[in-house]
Amino acid sequence: DVEIKLLVHPAVKLRGVDDTVSAVSQLVEEVGNVTASTDLFFHLDLVETPKASSSNSLPEVLPFQVQVRFKSKDGASYLRVITSRVPVTKDRDLAEKAACVSVIATANTQRAAKMAKIGKMEAARYLMLATQRMLQRGSVNDLQQEEAYIFAAETEQLERLLASAVR
To answer: How far is residue 48's CA from residue 51's CA, in Å, rounded to a whole number?
Structure first.
């Protein structure tokens, strides 16, 4: 069994599948068994305070930490800690063009599927369409364009199902 603990800066809040925003700066999730191909995504919001609305008070970087607790086959317990500092920008165009398309595509596809599973078909469809448009705008290099094309092709059936459910 694997346990993931995500620690974020107080200016960052975690967003649930139901679009609720958490008031805490950490999340613990029991994942169960994982393999090299397991993907796990967290959706985050930058919470702007009135003071932070000016670009001078926005932090230049935000620290994140992920703690992964797991047991080996022989029962030994391990803790792996991954810490990162992510630059912050208010420039949407710059952020979209620097984005990792495959991460955004996979995360939002999983999120839309979870939304649909709890009956939020319209919200799931909107998320898929918004993701498609953002990837089209921001995909500037060959790798990004290829990943955006793969996203469109791989999610075509999900988009059709969501469209028919919304009608």
So the answer is: 8
* DSSP bridge partners of 8: 64
Those residues whose C-beta lies under 8 Å from the C-beta of residue 5, and which sit 6 or more positions away, are: 26, 27, 28, 29, 66, 67, 68, 69
Give residues with Cβ within 8 angstroms of 11, minimum separation 6: 46, 47, 48, 49, 52, 59, 62
Q: How far apart are CA 79 and CA 43, in angstroms?
A: 23
For 39-78, what is each residue's pLDDT tens digit? 888 888 877 665 545 555 678 899 999 999 999 889 999 9
**In terms of Cα–Cα distance, which of 104, 162, 153 is closest to 131?**
104
